[in-house]
Each structure stands twice: as C-alpha cells, then as structure tokens.
Amino acid sequence: MKFNAVLDIQLHPGIADPQGSTIERALPTLGFEGISKVRSGKSIHLEIEAADYAAAEAQLSDVCDKFLTNPVIEGATINLVEAG
Amino acid sequence: MPAKVGVIRFPGTNCEFDTVEAINGLGGNGEILWHGDSSIGDVDAVIVPGGFAHGDYLRPGAIARFSKIMDAVIEAANDGMPVVGICNGFQVLTEAGLLPGALQKNAGLKFINAPQTLRVETTNSVFTSAAEVGQELSIPINHFEGNYTCSPDTLSELKANDQIVLTYVGNPNGSVGDIAGVCNEARNVVGLMPHPERASHKLLGSEDGNVLMRSLLASIAVSA
Predict the structure, then answer these.
(1) Among A15, A22, A67, beta carbon nearest to B149
(2) pLDDT tens across B154-197, in order?
(3) Exactly one of B145, B183, B195, B207 is catalytic; which is it?
(4) Among candidates A30, A29, A27, which has minimal Cα distance to A38?
(5) Within the 92-111 window of chain B, which residues sit less than 8 Å (CB to CB) from chain A?
(6) Which residue of A34, B152, B172, B213 has the lowest C-beta tally within 10 Å?
(7) For the domain that residue B159 is a member of, what is the CATH number?
(8) Catalytic residue flag (residue B195)
(9) Any chain B CB within 8 A of the CB of A72?
(10) Count of domains observed in chain B
(11) Interface pTM (ipTM) of the complex?
C-alpha cells in the first residue's frame, strides 16, 4: 500500500524557539494583534510504500527518531493518508 | 614522530586547511581525512573541523554523522582516542551522540562572526589540559546555529561531572549556561563552537587558540 505522509517537526515544549519568538515579536509591528505562543518548525512531505498503515507509521517513527529529528530538542507528529 | 591529527573533510567543510595549518604550526602533523573512507588510518587524534558539511541540510551535522568515516571515529572515540569538534564539527559530534545536547539557531537569529572572549572552566579535558581554569581566551566565533541547548537534567549532569569546558564571557547566542564547549564523561571528546584555528597566529589578531591545540597534541603524547 502507498501512503502520503506529512511529518510535522516541532521543538519540544520548553525548548527556546528563537525563530518563533522573533515572528511573535514582529507581528504587532505589522499591525497583527492577538497572536501568541508562536512556535516554528518544519514539515516534511513524502510517499511511503508499506504493508499497512501500522507498518508505515512504525517505519516513519523510526526514520524520525534516527534521522529526521534530533530527539534531544525535537519531536515529530506523523500524519498518514492512503494514497488514492 | 610528530603527533598525527586527522582532520575530516566532508563536502562543504571549509576550515580543514586552517586547522591542519594550526596543528602543523605547533609541531604536529595534520592530515586531511576523507568522509567517504571507512578508516581513519594511523592518526593519533581526530578533529572534525568547521564548515557546512552537506550544506547543513535538514540540521547541521544531521547528514554528516552518517558519513562512512563516522563509524570509525565513533569507535576510536569509544576506545579513548582524542576527538575534537570545532563549530560544525561540534554539531556533527552532538548529532552522532558522542557529546550531549544540541545546537540550535542563535537567539536573535543573527549569523555571528566576531572575536569572542571565552573562559576556561576545566583543564580536565583533551583540549584544555594546557590551559588554566579561569583563563580568558579571545577566539572568534562564526556561526548561525551555535545556541547550545540541553534539558535541565543534562545541564545539571554537565555541571556535576565538570563537563563544561569553555563558557562565553558575554553570551552571544543564547546558549544555556553560557556554554561554548563541552566534553564527554570520559573527557576525550570535546566540542566547541569557537574556532581556535582562527586564533593561531598574531597575524590573525589572536593566538589564544594555540593553548587548546597544544593541549590536544599533549594529550596524544600522554596517551601514546
């Protein structure tokens, strides 16, 4: 089975996010009010071939732990949809 | 025989020749190692130098740590060989799990290239043994992702084990505990963001980096 995956990589809560805080500070200067708790990360989109949903999820979780994130500071949320 | 120091070259490394020059200027024998080789040959120590290995894609060091030569470096480090990571090399060693913590974007989001005053926090490491505790060194930094980050638990362990090797006087990048360099528990692996090879001659504005390079050469003499 083929799946489309979106990996949402974010810094762990509590880890300082200089990019997020800079964005947050810039917003009011541009006239955008009421926005807080800005956190920035990255998203990686990919296709994966696997036996089933669980297998795809397990493999991506492994890839995230070993390569796509630095577990010291980051974690990933895996969003999987079967490719139609 | 002069101490042989292997300096690893990845695609995108740009400080390897400066590092070899600094080592050779102190009587050592610097030798470039290629990242795609599976052996580090007969070197007595390894330096992972500064630059932008593999373009810093994904995260600095994230791809370089999977280079063929890194298996040999990790094995040698675990056997007690002195291994030093400078700037990008520090990032590579944290990604490889040889050093605790991680380096993320500077607070302030500026690439900083400037002389920086450092304080030697311990002389119990392969890169500071010839220095003195409390000694201040002027050595340039040149990075965007040098903001040392670790969990509060790790920070307590670093302090308890005397693993903080160098700190910044006037924190330039937001690093926790003003940390500029750390070592592993065995004290043979050291990583630091500042560039000692760029402070290796009066013509460069400072020769304060030499005490660190001399420490490395001395540690080889001791372990040989």
Answers:
(1) A15
(2) 999 999 999 999 999 999 999 999 999 999 999 999 999 999 99
(3) B195
(4) A27
(5) 94-95, 100-102, 104-109
(6) A34
(7) 3.40.50.880
(8) yes
(9) yes
(10) 1
(11) 0.84
